[in-house]
Design goal:
Blueprint lengths: L2 H9 L17 E7 L2 E7 L10 H16 L3 E6 L6 H10 L6 E6 L20 E4 L8 H13 L13 E6 L6 H9 L17 E7 L2 E7 L12 H16 L2 E7 L6 H12 L3 E7 L10 H12 L8 E3 L11 H12 L5 H13 L4 E3 L2 E3 L1 E8 L4 E6 L7 H15 L7 E6 L2
Parallel strand pairs: 3-4, 4-5, 6-8, 6-9, 9-10, 10-11, 15-16
Antiparallel strand pairs: 1-2, 7-8, 12-13, 14-15
């Protein structure tokens, strides 16, 4: 019908997946948009089918009901070309208690000559009926004005989107329990959970407040091996997931305690490190593992051996089913987020490097010494260092790993990748 197309039009970029197949949007998809100068949180939902027999369709219907209940303004989209259909009547019945908040957007009115097609939708009983074309931008400004008027109404109280919120992408293979973790944290079924692998297709933002701090949880589609991706839809889902990692401050890579560690897990963790994001490894389904007092240590060693390039990442063992240790993730997220922003002064850094690194390990390549002069931290997120030497080409990766290890021993940087660049000293 075009809900996701309109959603993308309002937010100004492609956030929701758009596809010719009906029912592509299953979860509630959140994004901030500017509506006539007012920042609002838009929510894209799946199509509503009252009384549907299909399990996923029923679950989608519950998502729509949740979204309606928490919204200040509602866009009821109908198809102007198809005309009024029984499903429109069913949706109108759901929305009638919220009539003052509803704008009926009659979509696919692609020319001004077709605007009269919107008239029959007044019979649904809502005051605001607008002819629009999400694809061709017709009527979009009028729609924005109507939404702004509803949101600005004294009877409405809109939640401000927290500027200080920490964005956390939750990524992993299909069916490791990402959406179950989000729902357990939120205490409601905000993200669709179903036994069919790959149920989540869009990146879905959910806001949660814990001990006075705001977090935006970005639940993403399960990232499959590229060799198995054959449909356009799955390729789009991979793009959404990778973009979600870029949006995040800290990324939680969810592993399955009953199936550690696959090549796909390594690829996903590698993508997080490559993008320089804070990283936490979350081992879900811990309730399904038979344990003794050594089990956790065995799992930690195994994970670090299987993902050596992310050995700096904290590991937390949780269960979305029993809620074990779920809340303990938030102090860990705060700690990792702080480490991503840690800055070491040039004076402190060089006293350490000259005393503990440079002076003790004079490198010799082709009988010519490699001399180190000084170091400085160039940036944060991730912490990035520049080291100046007379022969940068002779500093190999092994020595850079040694320097990284010494920096971590001295300053921490738990959970964040480090970047070390060697520069020529003139």
């Amino acid at each position: 019908m075009g809900k996701s197309t309109l959603f993308n039009r309002l937010v100004g970029h492609r956030k929701a997946i758009v596809h010719g197949t009906p029912g592509v949007t299953r979860d509630r998809n959140y994004e901030v948009a500017d509506i006539d100068g007012t920042p609002v949180m838009l929510v894209d939902t799946g199509g509503f089918l009252r009384g549907a027999d299909d399990a996923i369709a029923r679950a989608v219907g519950r998502q729509v009901e949740f979204a309606v209940a928490e919204s200040d303004a509602i866009i009821f989209m109908v198809d102007g070309r198809s005309g009024l259909v029984p499903q429109d009547e069913e949706t109108a019945a759901l929305l009638r208690p919220f009539a003052d908040s509803v704008v009926v957007a009659v979509n696919k009115i692609d020319t001004h000559r077709q605007e009269s097609l919107a008239a029959e939708f007044y019979s649904l009983g809502f005051e605001r009926v607008l002819a629009i074309s999400a694809e061709h931008k017709l009527g979009i400004e009028d729609l924005k004005e109507s939404l702004a008027a509803i949101v600005a109404s004294p009877a409405k109280k809109t939640d401000e989107v927290a500027d200080e919120a920490t964005f956390c992408a939750i990524v992993g293979r299909p069916n490791v329990g990402k959406s179950s973790i989000v729902n357990a944290l939120l205490g409601e079924e905000r993200v669709l959970v179903h036994e069919e692998a790959g149920t989540t297709r869009d990146a879905t933002d959910s806001k949660v407040r814990v001990k006075g701090k705001d977090y935006i949880l970005i639940d993403t589609a399960g990232i499959r091996r590229r060799s198995k991706v054959s449909e356009l839809l799955e390729k789009q889902s991979i793009m959404v997931a990778e973009r979600s990692i870029r949006r995040s401050d800290v990324t939680l890579v969810v592993l399955d305690a009953t199936d550690l560690v696959t090549s796909q897990d390594r690829r996903i963790a590698s993508a997080v490190v490559e993008q320089g994001k804070g990283l936490i490894l979350v081992v879900n389904k811990w309730d399904l593992v038979k344990k003794d007092d050594r089990t956790m240590g065995v799992f930690v060693r195994r994970i670090k051996e299987e993902v050596p390039f992310a050995s700096f990442a904290p590991i937390v063992f949780v269960s979305a089913v029993t809620r074990q240790r779920l809340l303990s993730m938030f102090p860990l997220i705060d700690a990792v987020n702080a480490e991503c922003q840690r800055r070491i002064s040039t004076g402190v850094l060089n006293r350490f490097m000259r005393g503990e690194v440079f002076g003790k390990h004079l490198m010799i390549k082709r009988r010519k010494p490699v001399k180190f002069y000084f170091a400085t931290q160039a940036s944060v997120r991730p912490p990035t260092f520049a080291i100046f030497t007379n022969r940068p080409d002779d500093v190999d990766d092994g020595y850079l790993r040694y320097i990284e290890g010494r920096l971590r021993e001295e300053f921490g940087f738990d959970g964040t990748p480090l970047r070390i660049h060697v520069r020529k000293h003139h």
